[in-house]
Amino acid sequence: MTSQIGTTGTGGVFIGGQASGINTTALIDAAVQQRTFRADRLDIQIEENVAKVGAYQQLDDLTRAIDASLANLRGTDSLFDDTVRVWDQKAGTISTSDGSDFSGILDIAIDPEAQIGNYSIEVLDVAAVQRVASNTIADADAALGYTGTFDLGTTVGPSVNVNVTAGMSLRDVAAEINAQSGTSNVAAQIIQTSESGFQLIISGTQTAQDLSTTSTGGDDVLNLLGVTDGLGGFSNELQAASQARINFDGVEVTRNDNVLDDVVEGIELNLNNAAPGTIISLEVGNDAGAARAAIEEFINAYNAFRDFVTQNQQVSEDGVVAEDAILFGDNLLDLIANTYSNFIGGQFNSTGDIQTIRDLGIRIGSGNKLEISDSVRLDTALLNNFDAVRDAFAARADSDNAEFRLSRNEGVTPTQAIVFDITTDGAGTITGVTANGDGSAFTIDG
User: Fold this and answer.
1) For strand 370-372 and strand 362-364, is the pairing parallel, antiparallel, or unpaired?
2) Tens digit of pLDDT for each residue in 184-198?
3) pLDDT tens readout for residues 294-351
4) Burial 415-438 (b: 16+ CB within 10 A, else e)
5) Paired strand residues for 198
6) CA 31 to CA 37: how far, in whole Å?
7) What are the residue ranges of helices labelled H in 127-281?
């Protein structure tokens, strides 16, 4: 065996030779590893912390999704809470006496304020603007040769002065009218009626308002164009102004336009066409479909959370924790999971017929996930026992004194009744409060 020990030019020591028996590469690697051991451990710890932060963020997103789904199901939690929730929504069933499509007659919008009940609607007339036409003119762009002025407006609004000069064409007259339509509520357009014929069409922009015009100087332009008859009327009326007129539950109702949003609270009618003799039946009820969709949204959000819990509880047969079980044994995750399970598996704080999720046709299935096991039962509860389903999910407070109202509700306590006795001084300042006879629950300050 040949070996040698020497020094490098910089003073470093080396051991060399054939078959020296010394693995210098391994010696160097070991030395490097010893130097970098602490850094490697820090890198591993950083990676684990980054993974755990990401897992906590995912947990936060999942619980927020559950809270968002419940926001539509919970009841009012504040005096100032005016959020429209699924239990407030109304839906309508609509039919016609002759089997026709109601949408050709009117559109109906139902707000939460609508009273549950049955209504009948008959559209007798729709509101319309007045429209009049001129005689046929051969060339809409040729100078008319008229010089005159006229007032134009409606019988219920302001009028404007329209000035026509000899060089103006039929198209120019329409443009002059339209330039002031915002004030007059009158508009004009040119329609080509044939290969060599044009008509000036003048119409109101507001329904149920008659047109009004008077020649004020020079040529009577509108009379020369055939719009007016020279006697204060119109020669070619295409459509008369009219009010909307409906029969609502046997009562005749008129309006100046086709949007009737004040006949009864919560129901808006938009009239499209008159249909005398066709009775539209409207049945307003709770929106059971929206309530079911909200319940399904909650189930989906909760099941996504349960998938996350299952992922973080995985252990192989030989007892090895799965690589993606980042929060295995995490106290926070366990606390949240147990809290949800206790609420879902327990009874609702309700005195109604719906006491548990099983009464809604919902059960806890594999993986502790929720599933609708009996759709018929859920639909029946929503259709026939809507208030009980609402009470199972939504908290609410009732007071027999309109001056005493709940300011905020964040509790999960069961149903209870409390009698508050409030005393005041002569100026109306509260001096004391008892709750069911207990005066120690409140401290009055100011």
Assistant:
1) antiparallel
2) 999 999 999 999 999
3) 999 999 999 999 999 999 988 888 888 888 888 888 899 999 999 888 888 888 766 6
4) eeeeeeeeeeeeeeeeeeeeeeee
5) 137, 192
6) 10
7) 170-178, 181-184, 221-224
Rounded to whole angstroms, the Cα distance separating 364 from 267 reads 40
* Cα torsion through 368, 371, 374, 375, rounded to 10: 160
Q: Regarding beta strands 244-248 and 117-125, do their DSSP bridges make them parallel or antiparallel, or are they unpaired?
A: antiparallel
Q: Measure Cα distances from 426 to 259, 429, 430 in Å.
A: 52, 7, 10
Q: What is the pLDDT of residues 428-444, one digit of tens each?
A: 888 889 988 888 878 88
CB 304 within 8 A of CB 149: no
β 117-125/90-96 pair status: unpaired
CB 332 within 8 A of CB 58: no
Which uninterrupted H or E stretch holds 112?
none
Joined tokens for residue 398: 């009732």
Question: What is the b/e burial string over 326-356, where b = at least 16 CB atoms within 10 angstroms of the residue's CB?
Answer: bbeebeebeebbeebeeeeeeebebeeebbe
Q: Name residues whose C-beta falls within 8 Å of residue 109's C-beta, 6 or more positions apart in sequence.
A: 267, 268, 270
The amino acid that residue 416 corresponds to is Q
Query: How far apart are the two ends of the chain, measured CA to CA in Å?
Result: 101
